Amino acid sequence: MCLYFFVIYIVSLTAQSNNNCNKKNIPHLKRQGSTMQLVVNGKPLLMLAGETGNSSASDLKYMDIIWAKIVKMHLNTLVVPVYWDLIEPKEGTFNFTLVDIARQIEKIKLGDYVFSVHHEYSWPYAPKTEGKNPRYCGMIIMISPNEYYIAGRGMIVTFESAAKDGTIAGIGSMEEGQFINGKWIPGLHMNGDQSHQGRHMDLPGNTFSIQKVLLYKYK
Q1: Cα(161)–Cα(145) distance, integer angstroms
Q2: Per the confidence metrics, is the pTM higher than 0.85?
Q3: Taking a C-beta distance cutoff of 8 angstroms, is the pair 80, 63 a contact?
């Protein structure tokens, strides 16, 4: 699900996070005949919108309840207040943590596994890049019953079995790599330091990367 924050959030998440953005990429209104269209990422966006209470976004635990409702309602836009005293607690010093970790987890079932996708900042050991907020995005591609490519940035991914029989999912192997001429070229083989002792996959927020993971199940 792709969810947009309006009106101020969409600028910070879509425009400021993209170092290569230009005027065409910035969300804007465009006249189309006798009507106006909202253009986001170069395409018209039909908003299915909701709005939070004035103080809702100041409490991340309370926002978890709201996010669950938004998903069930199939909305793609949420109007959320921005508290400038929290965004800029000191003049010239900005803290976008509230924006970055507002939606901390999304569960995705693919094959025999459930992937729990968290924003990287939800992990206390994640490095914080001063002045740059990680773009939170990713893609999961299943290539066999137990093998997946996961690409993106700013994500922590954990794994569990989709079966409700006590089966546990484990990481058999995990490697970072790239595709060259359509062929997967492995690079760094992830050990316990990179996988937090086999607990998760980390896609850092300061760069785009692709990792290949082999999972297994046991009881």
Answers
A1: 12
A2: no
A3: no
25 in Cβ contact with 18 (< 8 Å): yes
Per residue in 117-167, pLDDT (tens digit) is 887 766 666 666 644 555 577 889 999 999 999 998 888 899 999 998 999
- The per-residue pLDDT for range 66-82, each reduced to its tens digit, is 777 887 888 878 787 77
Q: What angle do CA 106, 153, 20 make, to 5 degrees?
A: 125
With residue 156 as reference, give the H or E element that holds it: strand 155-161
CATH 2.60.220.20 domain residues, the chain: 104-218
Q: What is the 3-state secondary structure (H, E, C) of 31-76?
A: EECCEEEEEECCEECCCCEEECCCCHHHCHHHHHHHHHHHHHHCCC
User: How is domain 104-218 classified at the CATH fold level?
Assistant: Chondroitinase Ac; Chain A, domain 3 (2.60.220)
Token pair, residue 197, equals 């002792």
H-type alpha helices, the chain: 8-10, 60-73, 84-87, 97-100
Using CA atoms, how far apart are residues 163 and 25, in angstroms rounded to an integer? 42
- The answer to whether residues 171 and 198 touch, using CB atoms and an 8 Å cutoff, is yes
- DSSP, collapsed to helix, strand or coil, labels residue 110 as strand
